[in-house]
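Project outcomes to date are best conveyed with an example. Our students and postdoctoral researchers have been running inverse folding experiments weekly, and each run begins with a structure described purely in tokens. The record below, which covers 255 residues, was selected by the lab manager from last quarter's runs and is presented without edits.
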């Protein structure tokens, strides 16, 4: 069915409500840690790409500059990371069809078992059209660089903060990067990317190329969303609303 003008207006309004204004402390953190390189004990692991291709350089790292033991974020020299699109997970609901253009979709996320447990089997897995998840951490069996955020206290399905396009979006750690191609970082579900940049700007095969997206994971049990989390939400806005309270507490760590 072709969407009506009224329906499109409602959808646009919903999207603007769920994208939060970036608080001043987060803006200050963004500007401060972006400058320079992540080095020494701040650099937990390097050697990652946020783009592929002949001219790509492995300058991406998992960094804890000024937030040691509190949070981990993706960083490059005077940059952060881009946003590729992930459509993995429950494919039974195709949403608006934009994931159909993805060329590397997999039928489950890395934490499918945990999703079924915390949702009490209300859902089979995360749905990229609904759940704003971040692909974080790198699993490889080919000798390339790996990084397991759990070794530093980040819990699966914990709340993350994403600063993109002058907006603050809360997501969850919902998937990891596999061992196909170069060791990449900078990827999020279609619903999260849409909240950042809109429906016309992103689809399953086209994301945001600029390396200006800040992805922050938080350590500890406090970052794990509680029983109010709407794992069986029908849309992005419903799920996002259920984790905002947790996210608002966590960003207080960014000083």
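After processing, the design step wrote out the following sequence:
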């Amino acid at each position: 069915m072709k969407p009506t003008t009224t329906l499109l207006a409602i959808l646009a309004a919903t999207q603007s409500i769920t994208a939060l204004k970036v608080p001043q402390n987060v803006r200050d953190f963004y500007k401060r840690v972006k400058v320079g390189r992540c080095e020494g004990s701040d650099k937990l692991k390097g050697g990652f790409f946020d783009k592929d291709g002949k001219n790509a350089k492995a300058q991406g790292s998992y960094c804890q500059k000024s937030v040691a033991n509190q949070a981990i974020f993706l960083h490059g020299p005077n940059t952060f990371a881009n946003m590729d699109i992930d459509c993995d997970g429950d494919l039974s609901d195709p949403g608006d069809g934009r994931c159909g253009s993805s060329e590397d979709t997999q039928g489950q996320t890395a934490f499918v078992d945990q999703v079924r447990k915390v949702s009490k089997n209300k859902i089979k897995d995360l749905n990229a059209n609904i759940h704003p998840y971040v692909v974080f951490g790198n699993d490889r069996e080919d000798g390339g660089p790996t990084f397991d955020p759990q070794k530093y206290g980040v819990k699966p399905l914990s709340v993350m903060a994403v600063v993109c396009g002058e907006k603050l979006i809360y997501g969850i750690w919902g998937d990891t990067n596999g061992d196909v191609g170069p060791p990449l970082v900078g990827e999020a579900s279609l619903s999260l990317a849409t909240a950042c940049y809109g429906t016309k700007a992103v689809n399953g095969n086209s994301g945001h190329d600029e390396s200006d997206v800040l992805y922050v994971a938080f350590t500890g049990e406090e970052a794990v969303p509680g029983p109010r989390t709407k794992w069986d939400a029908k849309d992005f806005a419903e799920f996002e609303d259920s984790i905002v309270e947790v996210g608002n507490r966590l960003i207080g760590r960014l000083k």
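Residues 32 and 66 are 9 Å apart (CA to CA). The beta strands are 43-48, 60-63, 71-75, 81-86, 133-138, 159-164, 167-177, 187-189, 208-218. The training component of this project remains on track.
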